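During the no-cost extension, the postdoctoral fellow (Dr. R.K.) reprocessed legacy sequence entries with the updated structure-token encoder. One reprocessed record is reproduced below for audit purposes.
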Amino acid sequence: MSAESLSSSETNSPDRTPLYLIYHELGPGRQPYSYHCATEEFERHLQLAGELRRAAHAGFRVPEITFDDGHQSQYSYALPLLEQYGAHAVFFVTAGWIAERKDYMKWSDLRDLHARGHQVQSHSWSHPMLTHCNDAELEKELSYSRRLIQDSLGAPVDAISIPNGRWDQRVVRACVAAGYRRIFTSDSWRDEEEQGGVRIFGRTNVAQSMTAPALKRLLRRGAWKMLHDAAARGKNRLRQAVGDRAYHRIWRIVSRADATK
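Re-encoded structure tokens follow.
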């Protein structure tokens, strides 16, 4: 089962391999969070995506838009721009945070997204490292979120994005058992593949430093994407060397300090 086009109603031609992008928080200007994307920059990303799609240039991958967490800014700032440019996206939401946490979307927001043609899918129940969950916790994180989103929107949920980027074969098996058929990771180097009856997709995080020219270089097939993926693999090896919890503490410090540079 291939992933349906997320950023446009047009169908990708067979040779146009998508590049899935992950956005988190949006808003005007810069903010003290490395995964914040300025609304003006997001608009330039959408303009670039439209230009590349219309040009059908074989030298570029097709950008597809995804959002993680369910932050309110995705509805307030991203949705109007998506509507303006006729683009569609998938919103992976942390189900236990919806209507419960400040600055996160409400169920009425998600129903509106769904009514406008966007996908609303799962990002787990409470955003833990799934590899650190015991079997009962893992089942809750995967099944509770899927059922609640389906019941609240009256729409099927068959995809999950992995919170914190931590997954293994045990997590894959649990996702299949919970009813998911698509798993989206934050491994930028990963090509689409099938494992045990589920499709697995890599995605690329959009940092605050990702300008439209930088994104265009990333979308071009060639050395720049390879260098980007090599750096991402290096971070993954560092995480494995120092351990998840230590790496996550380092990431939290760096992700909030990046925007001040």
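The first strand starts at residue 18 and ends at 23. The helical segments are 39-55, 72-84, 107-115, 135-153, 169-177, 212-219, 223-242, 244-257. The remaining legacy entries will be reprocessed before the final report is submitted.
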